[in-house]
Design brief:
Length: 389
Amino acid sequence: MSTTTLAPPRPPLISWLAVTSLMLGIFAIVTSEILPIGLLTAIGADFGISDGTTGLTMALPGIVAAVAAPAVTLTTARLDRRVMLCVFMAVLAVADVLAAVATSYWVMLVSRVLVGLTIGGFWSIGAGLAGRLVPPRAVGTATAVIFSAVPLGSVLGVPAGTFIGDLAGWRTAFLALAALAILVLAALVMLLPPLPAHQVTSPRVLLDLLRARGAGIALLATFLIVLAHFGTYTYVTPFLQNVTGLSPVVVSAVLLAYGIAGIAGNFLAGKAISTRPRAAFVTCGCLIAATTLLLPSVGGATVGAVVLLVVWGLAYGGVPVCSQALFIAAAPRAPEAATVVFTSSFQATFALGAFVGGRVVDAFSVSTVMICGGLAALLMAVFLWSRTP
C-alpha cells in the first residue's frame, strides 16, 4: 500500500506550517546530533578527556539510531504518527537538557543515547509524511522542504551552536537546543493533524529489500562514503585549530561556509539524481576524496583549508539525497522500508566513522585520519563507478 494519500481538507497555510514544523524537528535533531563537532575540544577539556574519546559523543547516537530506526518502525507501526513524533521531540528536549547539566562524561553519553533514539524514531516516521500533509501535486516540494533541514543543520545549527558555546560555554548551546525542541513540540501539537498508521512495514518487507541487488550496492556505497566523511569531519575542528591554527571564532565562520556549500550541493544533487543518480554519487565521492587527501598538505594555510572545506561541503551536501535515491530505486514499491534501511545504515556507519576516526586520531594524528578517510571515499567512487550500468 502506498504511503502517499490525499491530504485532509485543511487550509493550505496550516498544511505548509505543518510541513515546516517537521522540517524544524529534523533540524533540531540534526543539530543536536552533530553539534559536538563544533564543540569537541571544549567538551573534552571540560571532562578532561582526549579529542578521540570525546568523539564517542558523535558515535553513540548513530549506533542507537541504527537500531532504533527499524525497531521503532516495526513496534509502533499501528500507532498514530503525530503522537509518536511529539513523544520523540519531548525526548530530544530531555536529552539536550541532560547534556547541559551533565556532571560527568557518562551522563553526557546517556544524553547522547536519547538523541540517537530520537533520530531513529523521528526520522523514520517523519521523513515520509509529506504526502499526508499536502496535495499530491505539492508532495515533491514538501519533501524537499523537510529534507532541507539536513544541510541547514550544518549551515545554521552547528555554527550558531559553536558561536553560543564560544560566548557562553558549550552547555549553554545545548540549553538553546532544548528550548528549540520544546518550541517544535508545541508546533507539532498545534499544526499536525491526526496521522493514523496507513502502512505497516513488516520484517519480511525489510528482509526482501535487503536481498535486492540494488540495495546491496546502495548499502556498500553508503557505508564507504559515510565512513570516510564522519571519520574525518568529526575531527575537523581539532584540525583547523591545531594544524591550520585558526581561532574558535574563525573555525565557526569556516563551518558556516562549509554548511552554505552543503545547501548548494544538496540542490545540485537533487537535480542530478533525476537523470544520473550514480554519476552524481560518484562525483560526490571523488570530491570528498580529493579534499580530505589534500588537507594534510594544503590545509596548513588558511586559504587552502577554507577552499577545501567549501568544496568538501559542496560534495557532502549531495551524499544523503544520492544515497536515499539509490535505496528508493531498489524498492520503488516500499518507500517506507527504503527510508528505514537508509536511516539505519547511514546512522550505523556515522557511528563507526566517528569511532574509528577517534582511534586513528589518538593513535596517530588528525592529519592521518584525513588521509584514511580520503582513501575510503576514493574506494567508494571506484566501486560505484564500476557498478554503473
